[in-house]
Each structure stands twice: as structure tokens, then as C-alpha cells.
């Protein structure tokens, strides 16, 4: 395998690996290891270029640093991306190569699953490295736990905006019916929510419509439907100049990473009085689930920590209101506070 490194300001490492025989082209981005080894999933996507893949990896890795900080986990932020068709059947060659690239970092990066990958892929990578998480017989698929956390974030947002976390009779526009979207739809349906759903995969849409009484709309129309909540659970960058003006909702709370195309789009939501629950706070359930494997937490304790997303979201909203700043900035401040504390340990003790 050919391994090279790029220098990017503000990031620990950006490592590119290529193994032509395996059909592998992967990138690992380590944003920070201040809080601990960088932890983040592996995204397998048909990027148009290496530059596009690196850009995605940079954004995702930084978000993982902030996500782990807000979740109170002893992990830094990292992410890996594999360039190619995630429907390929040549998974063993690709993910063994990916495991070798992970191993080359000596434990500074621990990989899990993400878009286009699964616990089965992680099992393959584990043949080449022990620096992986989310294996089937250990912490397993994080998607149901991510959905649990997003649901708690929705409840917290409802409490803040409407004075009650009761969601019965509310309407949620759910974008993405894959792993997280499916489990979130299940929870919302049980809570008495009316679902409007979309996905590029019509089979996934059909499943959610059938099992949870959803109403399907075309993917490009999900932004403009009348609903109480818009819940993006697919890819990032979907809150932008084109989509924000279409929204007819009171809040945005979802499981997708990097929902804001640019920071200014958080300002645009604020200007429209649309309450935004920052994505890396709302979707931290998945990485918290990994603590079962990485920190030997039991499941009951882990789920209690996931449920604390409710409190974190409310704290972010309170900071935003007190400091008169958008919620995405409030979340950043809260995350950066812990990182700075880790950088500057107390040098002396105060005495009474």
C-alpha cells in the first residue's frame, strides 16, 4: 500500500492510502487527540475526486471532536472515508486494506461504521487491526442508539419551544429512511407522531410507510412540506441557501452529520426563528454506544448517558438565549470549553 500525508492547518494528521490491487483508495483524518484517541466512523462513498473526499473527511473529523467533547467521552475526533461504490461485492479486499491503513496509525485513530459501511465491514477490517469499534458481538450497530439520542433531542427541543416534550399529534418531516431514520421513525410513531418521509431508496421509504403509517413524498419535496419538525437523517450540507427558504417547520432536529452547508446557514435558521438542535449534539448516541466496547460500559449506563442528550440540548439552548447567539455557536462554545480545559490542566489548587 502507498501511504502519504497531507498538512492541513488545525488538524493533527491527514493520511491517504492507496492499494491498487485491492481496489482501495482511503483517507483518514485526525482532527484532534487532546481528549484521547481520535474516534469516528468510516464513510464509503462514490466521491467525484480525492479533493471532495478530503473536504468531507475534514468536516466530519472536526465534528467528531466536538461531538465527543459534548458527550463527555475521553476521545478526540477523527473520520475515515473510502472512495468508491459502496455496493461493491469486493468488500473483503477493500476493508482489509482499510484495516491496514488504520493499523499504520498505531491506535491514534479508532474506526467504526458510517454511511455505506456496516458492522460486517468492521469485522473485516478487524482482521488487520484491533483499532476498530462497533463489532457485531460487542457494541454492535450504533444506529438504534443514535436514533434514541435524536429522539431525546427532539423531546428536549419540543420542551424548549412548546413547553412540553409530548409529541403526540405533531408532524415530523423525516429525510432519510436508512439505519438511523428507520429506528427514529419507529420511536416517533410510538410517540403518536405523524410522519412525512423521503429517501432516494424507494424500498426504504416503502418500509417506513408500511410499518409506521408514514406518507411518502419525493426527495426534493421534503424541504417544503408543512410540518412541526424537519428531521434530516441522510447526508450533510442539506441546510443551505436553496433549502432553508422552503422550510415550513418550527425546528430542525436530526441524525445527519454536518447539516449546515456553511456556518452562516445556522444564522439563516435563526433569522427565520427555526430552532436548530446542533447535529453533533443530537446524534451523539452512536459514539456513546461505542463506549460499551471501548470503555467497558454496561448497556444500562450507556443508555442513561445517551438519554443525557436531552439535558445537553437544553443547556445549548439556554446558552444561546443568554448570550444572544445562534444555537450552533452555543454548542461550539460548550464543546470548546472542555477541550480547552484538557489543554490547560490546573497548575495549582485553591485553598479556602
Topology summary:
Blueprint: E1 2-6, E2 13-19, E3 24-32, E4 38-45, H1 50-70, E5 76-83, H2 91-103, E6 109-113, H3 119-125, H4 143-162, E7 171-175, H5 179-190, E8 194-198, H6 202-212, E9 215-216, E10 229-232, E11 251-252, H7 264-271, E12 275-276, H8 279-282, H9 285-289, H10 291-294, H11 299-307, H12 309-323, H13 327-343
Helix pairs in contact: 1-13, 2-3, 4-5, 4-12, 5-6, 12-13
Domain count: the total is 2
CATH topology descriptor of the largest domain: Rossmann fold
> What proportion of the residues form beta strands (DSSP E)?
15-25%
Secondary-structure content class: alpha/beta
Report the strand count.
Answer: 12
Q: Could you give me the name of the CATH homologous superfamily of the largest domain?
A: NAD(P)-binding Rossmann-like Domain
Give the C-alpha Rg: 20 Å
Q: In the CATH classification, which architecture of the largest domain applies? A: 3-Layer(aba) Sandwich
Helical segment count: 13
Topology pattern, helix = H, strand = E: EEEEHEHEHHEHEHEEEHEHHHHHH
The oligomerization state is single chain
How does the overall form come out from the CA principal axes? globular
Low-confidence stretches: 346-352
Amino acid at each position: 500500500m502507498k501511504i502519504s500525508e497531507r498538512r492541513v492547518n488545525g488538524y493533527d494528521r491527514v493520511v491517504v492510502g492507496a492499494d491498487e490491487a485491492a481496489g482501495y483508495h482511503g483517507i483518514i483524518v485526525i482532527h484532534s487527540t487532546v481528549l484521547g484517541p481520535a474516534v469516528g466512523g468510516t464513510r464509503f462513498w462514490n466521491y467525484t475526486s480525492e479533493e471532495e473526499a478530503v473536504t468531507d473527511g475534514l468536516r466530519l473529523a472536526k465534528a467528531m471532536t466536538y461531538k465527543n467533547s459534548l458527550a463527555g467521552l475521553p476521545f478526540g475526533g477523527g473520520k475515515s472515508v473510502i472512495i468508491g461504490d459502496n455496493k461493491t461485492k469486493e468488500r473483503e479486499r477493500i476493508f482489509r486494506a482499510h484495516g491496514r491503513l488504520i493499523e499504520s496509525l498505531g491506535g491514534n485513530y479508532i474506526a467504526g461504521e458510517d454511511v455505506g459501511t456496516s458492522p460486517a465491514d468492521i469485522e473485516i477490517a478487524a482482521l488487520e487491526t484491533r483499532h476498530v469499534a462497533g463489532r457485531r458481538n460487542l457494541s454492535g450497530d450504533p444506529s438504534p442508539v443514535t436514533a434514541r439520542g435524536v429522539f431525546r433531542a427532539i423531546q428536549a427541543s419540543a420542551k424548549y419551544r412548546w413547553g412540553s416534550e409530548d409529541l403526540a399529534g405533531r408532524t415530523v418531516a423525516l429525510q432519510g429512511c436508512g439505519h438511523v431514520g428507520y429506528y427514529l421513525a419507529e420511536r416517533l410513531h410510538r410517540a403518536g407522531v405523524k410522519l412525512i418521509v423521503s429517501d432516494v431508496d424507494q424500498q426504504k421509504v416503502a418500509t417506513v410507510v408500511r410499518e409506521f403509517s408514514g406518507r411518502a413524498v419525493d426527495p426534493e419535496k421534503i424541504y417544503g412540506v408543512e410540518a412541526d419538525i424537519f428531521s434530516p437523517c441522510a447526508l450533510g450540507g442539506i441546510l443551505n441557501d436553496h433549502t432553508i427558504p422552503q422550510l415550513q417547520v418550527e425546528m430542525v432536529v436530526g441524525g445527519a452529520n454536518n447539516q449546515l452547508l456553511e456556518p452562516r446557514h445556522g444564522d439563516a435558521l435563526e433569522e427565520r426563528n427555526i430552532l436548530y438542535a446542533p447535529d453533533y449534539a443530537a446524534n451523539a448516541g452512536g459514539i456513546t454506544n461505542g463506549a460499551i466496547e471501548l470503555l467497558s460500559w454496561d448497556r444500562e449506563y450507556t443508555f442513561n448517558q445517551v438519554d443525557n442528550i436531552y439535558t445537553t440540548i437544553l443547556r445549548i439552548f439556554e446558552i444561546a438565549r443568554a448570550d444572544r447567539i445562534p444555537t450552533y455557536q452555543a454548542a461550539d462554545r460548550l464543546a470548546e470549553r472542555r477541550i480547552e480545559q484538557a489543554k490547560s490542566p490546573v497548575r495549582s489548587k485553591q485553598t479556602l
